[in-house]
Amino acid sequence: MTDLKQELLELVRREGSINCTLVSERLGYTRQAVHRHLRELVNAGELVVTGHARATRYSLPASVKRLHRLDLADVDEREVWARVAPELVPPTATLAATAIAEFAVEELVKNAASHSAAASATLQVDSTLEQIRFQLSDEGVGLFTRVRERLGLGSELDALIELSRAPLTTEPRTHLGQGLLLLASACDQLTIEAGGLLWQSDRERGDQLLGEAPRRPGTRVTCAISADTELALDALLRQRLARQNPLAAIGQVKLVEHGGQFVSREEARRLMEGMERYRVVDLNFHGISGVGLGFAQELFQRWVPSHPGTRIQVRGAGPVILRVLRDAGAHLT
User: Which of 42, 138, 256, 292 has the most crowded CB, counting CB atoms within 10 A?
Assistant: First the structure.
């Protein structure tokens, strides 16, 4: 790409849109040279054109997708940020949004290099003027597999549940997961797909989604940040240090439909492990076809009396499940 084309793209990112007169005045090139390079950028899909004659304006496409291949064996996350920032951060972005994006890129690249065991990763930029958005993909060891191995859990599904409940420390020195959950509290939406499973944190809704995803090698993380956010990253960090869980206010658990049923007392004990940290635990039974009486009794005859500071509320349960829970001692409205 010629120097002029690069200058034109940088000017569009700063101004939002440009025309030949503006470029000539700012950069000192002739209108003929500017027009020729603008048309080449339009033909290449780098810019879009609107209007006619003197009203002609050039701007970035609504969504510009660019791919960056990263060598994880010798990657510097700060260099990656410096390389992708001009494309990733729109001219409309606040300083707060830029700071969150910088933290997100560096944290996710660092985690991929340290924990994925992949040789390379791909960072795809997909930002608009309203939203900073990117996706980091690798073909190494999936995140939920890594968590399962390091924490000695029974399955990737157990790792998914664990990630949704509390900060993870699978690497004592690097604290895999703690920066990830801080990032989840800063981004509007953070989605992790690995091993056929999906975890998504939605800050605006104050909720998490646990479910299935297309099975593919490695891990795919998608991060979306509103360009106009004023959320201060340092304030979130102080909040996290104080509470040790940026998602603690959510207090919600969506039962993943894994076979469609929760039956045993052991499943109930595993589900509620660590839940005493919440004042309210919101159990969402949507999509669950049945529960065992032992499961219900473990929840409402053993766990609830042992944790008077935590209240369980139930939603999404059908009439049969509600009857089983009530027979086990649940006080449901």
Answer: 138
The CATH code of domain 64-243 reads 3.30.565.10
196-203, long-range: CB within 8 Å, 24+ apart, which pairs? 196/156, 197/144, 197/156, 197/157, 197/160, 199/160, 199/163, 199/164, 201/247
Sign, CA dihedral 52-56-57-58, equals positive
Return the domain boundaries, the chain: 3-59, 64-243, 252-327
Please say whether the beta carbons of 172 and 178 come within 8 A: no
**Bridge partners, 293 (sequence order):** none
Single pTM value for the model? 0.58
Please tell me whether residue 60 adopts helix, strand or coil conformation. coil
Domain boundaries 3-59, corresponding CATH code: 1.10.10.10
**Residue linked to tokens 């040279």:** 33
pLDDT in tens, 179-222: 777 788 889 999 999 999 988 888 877 777 888 888 889 999 99
> What is the amino acid identity at position 329?
G
> Measuring CA to CA, which residue among 123, 248, 122 is closest to residue 182?
248
